Amino acid sequence: MESKYIRETYCFKTSRVFPNDVNNHNTLFGGRLMSYIDDIASIAAAKLCRTNTVTASTDSVDFLQPIHPSDSVTLEAFVTWTGRSSMEVFVKVIREGLMTGERKIAATAFLTFVALDENNRKVNVPQVIPETEEEMQLHQTAPSRAAIRRQRREESKQLAGFLTTSYPWEQ
Questions:
Q1: CA-to-CA distance for 112 and 82, rounded, in angstroms?
Q2: Helix, strand or coil for residue 151?
Q3: N or C terminus: fewer CB in 10 A for the chain?
Q4: Residue 109 forms beta bridges with which residues?
Q5: Between β-strands 86-97 and 4-5, what pairing exists: parallel, antiparallel or unpaired?
Q6: Overall domain count for the chain
Q7: Nearest-angstrom CA–CA distance, 33 and 41
């Protein structure tokens, strides 16, 4: 399978923050931003493998700066690293003051997607080639995030085996 440049997976989305997008602190509702993040990350993943993908995990969403109604929010997503059938996608969220032009990193996120065929079986994905300093840094540090992800998944499986599936009203 031929490798692809990370730049081939780049996607961008810019939105304005409207009154129905904010929480009681008058900042962009975190759930709305998380939805934007998953949406754009899924597009980056599909651009790499050109097949169906599913979200396997959201490793982290770090909210670094509030996003206000006077801001626009731009999301930039790209695949940073691949395994056999999995892809790590990085999403950078930039807030821009519409009156001032000031830009700040408002959030960052790492998600993992898995490529599937038409029968929902895992398929191999191309490796990615970093070119910019940002891409190289994210690519080089991805294996350590993947190891943490595997450990966390095992811990989650163990926890799931302990948890009950009965509802409180059934006890």
A1: 9
A2: helix
A3: C
A4: 61, 91
A5: unpaired
A6: 1
A7: 12
pTM: 0.91
CB atoms within 10 A of CB 113: 27
**CATH number of the domain residue 20 falls in:** 3.10.129.10
Which residue range(s) make up the domain with 108? Answer: 4-170
> How many residues are recorded in the chain?
171
DSSP 101: -
Per DSSP bridges, beta strands 4-5 and 128-129 are: parallel
- H or E element: which one contains 58? strand 52-63
Structure tokens at 54: 């599913």
Position 16 confidence tier, pLDDT thresholds 50, 70, 90: very high
112-162: pLDDT as tens digits: 999 999 999 999 999 999 999 999 999 999 999 999 999 999 999 999 999
And the tokens for 21?
A: 């997008």
**49 CB-near residues (< 8 Å, 6+ apart):** 87, 115, 123, 125, 126
In this predicted structure, the answer to whether residue 1 has a pLDDT above a threshold of 90 is no
Structure tokens at 129: 């080639």
Q: Which amino acid is at 30?
A: G
Percent of the chain with pLDDT over 90: 92
